[in-house]
Amino acid sequence: MAAHTGAAVSTSALSKRFGRAVALDALTLDVAAGSIFGVIGPNGAGKTTALRLLLDIIRPTSGSALVLGVDPRIGGPELRRRIGYLPGELRLEGRITGRNLLDQLARISGPVAPGAIDTLAERVGLDLTRQVRTLSKGNKQKLGIVQAFMHTPDLLVLDEPTSGLDPLVQQTFLVLVTEAAARGQTVIVSSHVLSEIEQVADRVAIMRAGRVVRLSSVQELRQSAARHVRATLSGTDVATVRAALEADGALSALSTLSAGLSADSAGISEPLGTGSVCISGTLNGSIDRLVKLLAGFTVVDLRIEEPDLEESVLALYRDDEPGSTREHHRDDHRDGRRTKRHPHES
Amino acid sequence: MSRDATDSVAEKPDDEHPGDGHASAEHPAALQAPDAHPHTLPLLRQSLVGSWRSLLAWSLGLAATILLYMPLFPSLGGANSQLSALLASLPPQLIKTLGYTDIASGSGYAESTFFGLVGFLLMSAAATTWGSAAIAGDEESGALELILAHGVSRHQLVLERSLAVTVRLVVLAAVSGALLAAVNPSSQLGLAGTDIVAACAAFLGLGLVSGSAALMVGALTGRRLFSTAAGAGVAAVSYVVNAIGSQSAALDALRSFTPYGWAYRHTPLATGADLPGLALLFGLSALFTVVAVAALRRRDISGA
């Protein structure tokens, strides 16, 4: 059982090619049971491909996966009954009411506790009496969320669940996810932007061009994220402050990143006429060393901003961008069939 | 897990660790015990419930055809009727192409106007529509991805949906047969009840071939266009080859190679069931379905 190994989902060099295009390149990760795991990445990063592999909707080119302790290739309906899945591009058509559709799905994947559908629908604000084809995108998404949660599956795999939802329902969704994790359910949730899930995710994998470029806890991400720092010191001069900064190797990041924000290239300036020194710049990593260094001076003013996670994620997206991603896009065009076969990520 | 003890046991996670107990925190679903399963053939029921409008429409189409054509027979038919005289004046190739060689008899009339022509057209169109919607249509709309992420296997999906198409085609054939039997006396067709059953079985088999061909190509490609082309193509090619085969004794052998020929070349409405022909029709449909199961099991499902 997965809980014994601590991993609800575990992949090993899981890869998927569509024709010549590499959609997922040797994905290796573990998702702890009972945790909320975020998969973040731009379009075409391989998020949807990875999630669809876990559901056995598509099959890996190489590598393997264990979902709740079972290979999805052989787990079959029994395994999928224990998973709640929200497709990335949920299109619902047909002259069927939301309730009838959910009842049909419950018959396949049940059991669904009595009243569970109504409770969920009420919480997300979904009218179950309307025909699904008449629902707006946001309401279809709500229906998708209800069908994923209704049978209280051990694992929830949610591909861009918040797309189309208004901010209030997004918050409700995050509460649902938190409650699920509190009950011991494992949640994997993908998004374009970290901010949508940062408040609930325990760990995140940041993906780009089919690879995980960063795998860490949100806390680690926050700690290592760039912060804008600004301090004003009095009773000292630029030379002294610069010497102190340069004496501490750990703060070299500050001096290298301070360019442009202040009067001199090292990020240290002496405001005219005040006799004090101003440090400003972007600090990557721990703030502890900086605070200790500043303690040796008289600090007139100190501002350390909230780390900007989105900015550091975007930086990860951009890393060596011109190489492999362009190759990917070229492959997209070369393989005509692929546009049909490859899951579109929005 | 307590659910569905009857299902195939590909994984039984708790068995690996009998010590856990079932209602552990790792299995929240097990906490909500009431066991609502097993639901028999959920996908079949879903398909049938979802398609009653379309089934009704096609049934009405077939009924209208029978009710429009059959009552005309007494005024047209008979060996010495004006129709016979008119047909005698037409080029024999045209008569053979249309299958009107025996139109002066009740069975010949019913077969050449309904089973062989308009009914055949409607039956093939309905079968193709349903067959291509079953897999390819759902896949293109993205609905297949959602349903296959639930507790259903791919072979179960193909088989239940094939069965759903079959049930609807059986309804069409039964409606046609019943109506034909009903108008048989008043329209002076002089058909034997068993022959009506035999003709309807052939009619059904012909529909099944188109429907299963469409479904199979849907399972192979996931494309509605290809799937529809396959279903309609089987019917059209079959009809055309049969028509060519009717032109002369030398070409008659061609008719043994088409589903249309298997269904009608021994004139079931006049002479009763042609068992080898029926076996070929149903056998080919079954073969297509088996290929569909194998095809869908092995390939990736494309997204919306």
What is shown here, in short?
The complex is a heterodimer of chains A (346) and B (304). Chain A is α/β, with parallel strands linked by helices and 346 residues long.
Question: Could you describe the 3D structure shown?
Answer:
In chain A, 37% of the residues lie in helices and 25% in strands. With 346 residues, chain A is an alpha/beta fold. The relative contact order of chain A is 0.15. Residues 1-37 of chain B have low confidence and may be disordered. Chain B has one domain (42-298). Helix content of chain B is 69%, strand content 0%. Chain B has helices spanning 13-16, 28-31, 42-50, 52-69, 73-76, 82-89, 92-98, 106-141, 143-148, 154-183, 193-221, 224-245, 259-264, 268-271, 275-298. Chain B has 304 residues and is an all-alpha fold. Chain B starts with 12 loop residues before the first helix and ends in a 6-residue tail after the last helix. The chains are: A alpha/beta (346), B mainly alpha (304). Chains A and B meet through helix 1, helix 3 and helix 4 of A and helix 1, helix 2, helix 3 and helix 9 of B. Chain A: Residues 316-346 are annotated as: Disordered. Chain A: Residues 317-335 have a biased composition (Basic and acidic residues).
Task: Give a quick set of tags describing it.
heterodimer, A: 346 residues, alpha/beta, Rossmann fold, Alpha-Beta Plaits, 2 domains, 14 helices, 25% strand, disordered C terminus, B: 304 residues, 69% helix, disordered N terminus
Span between termini of chain B: 33 Å
Provide the CATH superfamily of the largest domain in chain A: P-loop containing nucleotide triphosphate hydrolases
Structurally, how many domains make up the residues of chain A? Answer: 2
Q: Provide the domain count of chain B.
A: 1
N-to-C series of helices and strands of chain A? HEEEHEHEHHHEHEEEHEHHEEHEHHH
Transmembrane segments (chain B): 55-73, 114-136, 163-184, 196-218, 225-245, 275-296
Region (Disordered) (chain B): 1-27
Protein name (chain B): ABC transporter permease
Keywords (chain B): Membrane, Transmembrane, Transmembrane helix
